[in-house]
Amino acid sequence: MSNAPISPAHAYEVLLAGNKRFVENNHQHPNQDAAYRASLAPGQRPFAVLFGCSDSRLAAEIIFDQGLGDLFVVRTAGQVTGPEVLGSIEYGVGVLGAPLVVVLGHDSCGAVTAARQTVIEGAAPPGFIRDIVERVTPSVLAARAEGETEVDGIVDVHIQRTTDLLLERSTLLAKEVEAGRCAVVGLCYHLTDGTVREVGNRGLTPRSTEA
Q1: Per the annotation, where are the binding residues for Zn(2+)?
Q2: Reading across the β-sheet that carries 71-76, which strands appear in turn?
Q3: What are the tens digits of pLDDT across the range 117-170?
Q4: Which residues are annotated binding-site positions?
């Protein structure tokens, strides 16, 4: 991927094309050679910020067939947000100039499953895992209010709510989206076949989101 600035729509197209190569087992493994590695030493210009779940099966550069310097990756269990996450995303957009932010969740998410179980049984897990569960719980409750009680349906709600939350809490991100310099897209990754499905977006026109 070129380090030249690109539009949010183009960045999204590049990301989806990489996932298509991954799914079809037609990987290019771009930007991973020694010469390119050395060329990045003076600085980075990723074309997307990827905020995803820490699940070991969601290795961003692999599932989107990208290389060094292409993605600015932020990951937490259940893609839960906090000041350090928001600051990292703002750095990727405001300082590094990435025109796209992706919120990446996945089916059968363990954090969502744990939060759903806590709501049903009323017993929270121990330690700091409880903090993760508490941050996912509002999405579980919002999904239940919509009549959705299954884990994968809750995952979609959680991805959409996280996308909205980023723009509600980050003035910088909201201004960049409003100005058309950035877009935020929620994607759900399917563990079995490796595909991604758009859950929602802010800042892309319907035509731009066609795969």
Answers
A1: 53, 55, 106, 109
A2: 71-76, 48-53, 100-106, 183-189, 196-202
A3: 999 998 888 999 999 999 999 999 999 999 999 999 999 999 999 999 999 999
A4: 53, 55, 106, 109
